[in-house]
Design a protein that fits this description.
Largest sheet: none
Shape: flat
Order of helices and strands: HHHHHHHH
Distance between the termini: 48 Å
Number of strands: 0
Amino acid sequence: DDRALQAYREAFDQFGPYPLYDNPWLPIAELRQRIIASHQILMSRNDYIHAAALADCAARMPVDMVIWQLGGEANRALGAARLRDAETQPYKEAERLRSEGRQAYHAAANHFERLAWARRTTSSYPQDIWQAVETHILAGEYEPAIDRINDYLATYDRPQRTAAYVAQIECLLHLSRVE
């Protein structure tokens, strides 16, 4: 898995910017399919470290928005796995794992924000921005969570609006300031 990931990294490093990308041996659509297939294999093996790393390095290329979705999902799964692992470890190791879990959640939130921004004029935007909210909260990043909640509330008038207000209150309480 490390060798495959390194091969992907080397390939991504050799590609130019998307508008200039023109490779007859590996069209962009095939590259996208290979990335998705590799990601699915890694996720099915619960290899969240490599799945997140693949999505993170693929996100440097504007292959398409699917990569940001995969990156968000992989990093969210990695964050959850790290926090689960921390529950059974001695204090120092548990702290390290919790820190890695929060970092993975932060990366997931960034992927979801990029995805939401790219799809801001579509019906997917509310779900994308809500995923960013949830992962910011899981990362303990309440200020950005509040910002994304406000974005969400500005565009969405459906049942989740109540959940958004509750999440906003919880974030404010974590920050010790109720407005």
